[in-house]
């Protein structure tokens, strides 16, 4: 049986949070799709609000606190990431950006990502395309074609084919497809089986 671990990263500031709620719904829909395909799924939630001070300290010192280091490790070693941010001033939140700023530059190469965002008005919906998607493209992650934005008016809306539930379902189907295609194909950690110094000198890096 295929085993898939998904890191669910939420940058919601309040508790409870609509950002965390959207992250949960995206993760649950993905789990449904993967389970139907015969996969065993583990959802690993990472709430960035719990690491806000540690993230600021990391920016200043260059070193993560133990709790932040553990959270980073859980994210970069996952099979895929659900990443959801609130939208402030037409872009992702500072907390969300800071977390991805402190990751090692190549740690998300080939990582499947399902992006989501929340906001008070529909006017910010394109922030996913002009801010969040380019961020993950820069990190060389693989972002699902459908990203999900939830404005305040979307919660409870039931427009046929265009409601929040429909968008979540479509995004989860695409993300599950990426995960099933990538779960056994992510590049191995080079530090697990490092190349010896002699082989490096000889040019043998395989």
Automatic annotation (TrEMBL):
Gene3D superfamilies: 3.40.50.360
Protein name: FMN reductase
Entry keyword annotation includes Repressor: no
Top-level enzyme category: oxidoreductase
Domain NADPH-dependent FMN reductase-like: 5-154
One Gene Ontology MF term: oxidoreductase activity
Source organism of this protein record: Nocardia thailandica
Keyword annotations from UniProtKB, A to Z: Flavoprotein, FMN, Oxidoreductase
EC number(s) recorded for this UniProt protein: 1.5.1.-
Claim: Flavoprotein is one of the keywords in the record: yes
């Amino acid at each position: 049986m295929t085993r898939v671990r998904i890191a669910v990263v939420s940058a919601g500031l309040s508790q409870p949070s609509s950002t965390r709620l959207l992250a949960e719904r995206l993760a649950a829909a993905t789990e449904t799709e993967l389970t139907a395909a015969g996969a065993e799924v583990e959802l690993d939630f990472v709430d960035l609000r719990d690491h806000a001070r540690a993230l600021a300290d990391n920016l200043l010192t260059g070193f993560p606190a133990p709790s932040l280091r553990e959270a980073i490790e859980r994210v970069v070693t996952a099979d895929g990431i659900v990443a959801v941010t609130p939208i402030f001033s037409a872009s992702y939140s500072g907390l969300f950006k800071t977390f991805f700023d402190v990751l090692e530059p190549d740690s998300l190469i080939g990582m499947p990502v399902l992006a989501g965002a929340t906001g008070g008005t529909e006017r910010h919906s394109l922030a996913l395309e002009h801010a969040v998607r380019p961020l993950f493209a820069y990190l060389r992650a693989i972002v699902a074609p459908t990203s999900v934005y939830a404005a305040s008016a979307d919660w409870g809306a039931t427009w046929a084919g265009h409601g929040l539930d429909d968008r979540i379902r479509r995004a989860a189907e695409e993300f599950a497809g990426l995960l099933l295609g990538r779960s056994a194909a992510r590049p191995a950690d080079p530090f697990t089986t490092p190349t010896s110094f002699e082989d490096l000198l000889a040019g043998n890096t395989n």
